[in-house]
Amino acid sequence: MAKKRTAKEVYQLRIDLAHAKPPIWRRVLVLDTTTLSELHAVIQLAMPWDNSHLHGFYVEGSMYSAFDGLDAEDASKISLADIAARGIKKFDYEYDFGDSWGHVIKLEKTLPLDKD
User: Fold this and answer.
1) By C-alpha distance, which of 30, 13, 34, 7 is closest to 91?
2) Whole-angstrom Cα distance, residue 2 to residue 23?
3) pTM above 0.70, yes or no
4) What rounded mean pLDDT belongs to the chain?
5) β-bridge partners, 5
6) Pairing of strands 55-59, 25-31
């Protein structure tokens, strides 16, 4: 799981709001060391949501969240590099379990990190 490490790459992610017609999506660039907890903050700004509801990430049958009481793994302990190393290029994010705003997150591109 996520360990303190130096970023080596940048990931270009496409975040789609599931089932939206017309499509609603955002493209973001994040470091490979970004944890799912940190990605939640990015999504909140990009969509823009107001960070007032429970959320969870769903990666290959496992749920990751920051909230105690949910049957989930700790979202701050797994990075995007950990996920990519398992060959996963697409996973889901749900915001607001009541209204169930589903999102599909796709790794579109891996870019070299520009130290400048």
Assistant:
1) 13
2) 32
3) yes
4) 92
5) none
6) unpaired
